[in-house]
Amino acid sequence: MHAIGFGKGADRFLIEESARAGKGQSKIIDLEDDLSDVIIQMLTACLTPTLDDFQLEYDSSIFESVYPDP
Q1: How confident is the model over 4-34, as pLDDT tens digits?
Q2: Does the residue 14 lie in any domain?
Q3: Residue 58 lies in a domain
Q4: Domain residues for 32?
Q5: The 3-state secondary structure of the chain, one letter per residue
Q6: Is residue 59 part of a domain?
Q7: Model confidence, pTM
Q8: Which of 22, 26, 41, 48 has the most CB atoms around it within 10 Å of its CB?
Q9: What distances in angstroms separate CA 46 from CA 1, 19, 40, 51, 59, one per listed residue?
Q10: How many domains does the chain have?
């Protein structure tokens, strides 16, 4: 989850901790800033894989097939 705070009155702690808990980015912007640039940066981060080394174990008697075939 990404979090954006608008203006100097934004609760920085809430914005930063929300993003941290959601494994996203936080940004406090001025009301005059271009929001589209911030949104594009955050969406670009969403396209970056967060898992690179994991293993999935399952009971093969439950599934008829798995794709891709291991």
Answers
A1: 999 989 999 999 999 999 888 899 998 888 8
A2: yes
A3: no
A4: 3-46
A5: CCEEEECCCCCHHHHHHHHHHCCCCEEEECCCCCHHHHHHHHHHHHCCCCCCCCCCCCCCCCCCCCCCCC
A6: no
A7: 0.58
A8: 26
A9: 9, 13, 10, 12, 31
A10: 1
